[in-house]
Write the structure tokens for this entry.
Amino acid sequence: NNMHFDCSSNIEHWETTWTAQQKEWCCVTEGHACHPYDCFEDLVDRHEKWDAAKTAYCCQEKSIGCAKSTTLPLVTTTPFSYDCEAGKSNWEAGWS
């Protein structure tokens, strides 16, 4: 395979504009486009432009584009069965 690609051409949109061959070439020769997704491309518009696979990859692998948690903190009215003051002065040896 003697194909050569310009790895700086349209690099800001490599995910959507480069062919699979260009991605492979540029990854091997210059370390560009080695991941399946560019998590910065369309980041601002990700809710409209990213599919579920890209969203999952970017969040799980890169911690980019993750949805903010909307869960409420746990509130309990049941008293805990531990006395946190008991043995506090010797906690390192006594607590397990």
